[in-house]
Amino acid sequence: MSDEELSPETAENTETMSDTNKNSDAVASNESLREKFRLTGDEQILKDVKPSLFAFLPMYVIALVILGAHMLFAVDWDASSDDNILVKVMIFLIELSDIGEIGFVLVMLSVTWFNRMLNGTTSGKWTTIFLLIVAFTPPVLRLDDFIAWVMGKDSGFIPLDDFSYSLFGIVWASLFTLFTIFYQRSFHYAITNHRVIFTQHLVIPGDGRRILFDNINEIRTQRTMLGAMFGYNTIICDTGSQLGIGEDAMSVSVGSAGSGATPETANGEGQITKNIFRKMFAFVTYQRTRKIDLPDPRFSFFCITNWKSIEQLLNEMHQRHSQSGILNELKDQIAESQD
Q: In sequence order, what DSSP letters do the residues of 213-272 get, joined into one string?
């Protein structure tokens, strides 16, 4: 019997089984979300959302910068009198790189310093540490070869004899991209009939924050140029504690520390050495600060799409749980009981 010759009863049974399977999948998904957000008995999820695909676009740009820095040194540059300043600078850096890849190290340290100085979304400590690891990879390999030479071994502890710019550029850029994707996918937000829930399942499951609607003082949005281009926005539920929102002053942040020694008690040469190291440390840890709200993706609806519907739902639930909303609901109940 062909598909066209199926009886009405068989077709109806097939549709019923399909609907049942869909309902089962929906129930399983709902139970999974309830367990993930740790909901109470009568709590229902009204909306759940994750950050946009382009939420961490600057982090992917850093990955491209890492790849580009490696590829610049992988290119065979030819010098001539008519070359522009970029070619001459690259040739000079490559000549420096003949001694332990010093030119590449200087470029990556400059990238690390500039990224930290910007004090943007990519200026966190983990990004800085990753960039420093990338910068000092060639010296570590050279140090390993030197230790092997001193110990009279044919190869060092690290099973790599040569530093390949192309290979390491692809590896480091891919690792940074994978870490960014893993970090981005760890955030999940939900709006229930009682509260707002922010969760991050990165290493330890269950990390997050839960805010009752009556504890929210203000609901506001913060949109950037990239958000306007890619259609996402950040919604902040302000509780007055400013948790997850950093407001910075216009100043300079450095890592230098004061010394308790006085000119009379400190050795002159030692004092000069300490001052030099202190200034070098201050230069490396230089960071420009900005007077701007910096929403934390752990405690806000960070760079979400369909943000207008989320904002409307938040405003409705906030109004319903506010004192005026409760009084209006009580007024309606009294009016209904009198009728």
A: GGG--EEEEE--HHHHHHT-EEEEEE-SS-TTEEE--SSEE---------TTTS-HHHHH
